[in-house]
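Fresh eyes needed here. I'd like your take on this protein's tokenised backbone:
***
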Amino acid sequence: MRLSYSSMNLFKQCERWFYYRYIINEKPTEQTDTKYADFGSCIHELLEKEEQLTDEILNKYWNKFNLEGKGFNKEDVKNQFNYVKSLNLPIVKKEEVIHLNFEGQQLIGIIDAVLEDNTIVDYKTSSFLEEKYLKQLSLYKNAVELRTSIKFLEVSFVSTKKIECYICYLL
């Protein structure tokens, strides 16, 4: 079984949901509100694939992630996309999939961006950042360093909202 950092967190939160989602590939009968995950996925994919945000592109992603009626508006998407783009991050690589064997388990993760100075960036659409995100980035950093000669001196959370950007030094 391949595990991601997200799947491990889900297991810690609710073993039953993990079982349905990752073992038997079914959704449990109880409906879980995924609106924040849908919104975050929309922003992440826009940042990965689009350089500019036209109304046509916005509508395409808005519909793809089924955001209508979930408490968001299109201005939220525009503002977060435009804010991150205004930072002019010197991105050299987007959406890098990493694999790591950890105690016999295959782990998979996705690095949102790598900057020119080899800083690993993870976009967060949340207004607050939790310790689990630092652990996630530490895992990504170690996985890339194990398989390459690249040494990362920094990992960084980049909030898609106009709040402080968190930079964590991992030496």
Residues 131-147 form the longest helix (17 residues). Strands lie at 2-4, 91-102, 105-115, 120-124, 154-159, 166-169. The first strand starts at residue 2 and ends at 4. Residues 163-171 have pLDDT under 50 and may be disordered.
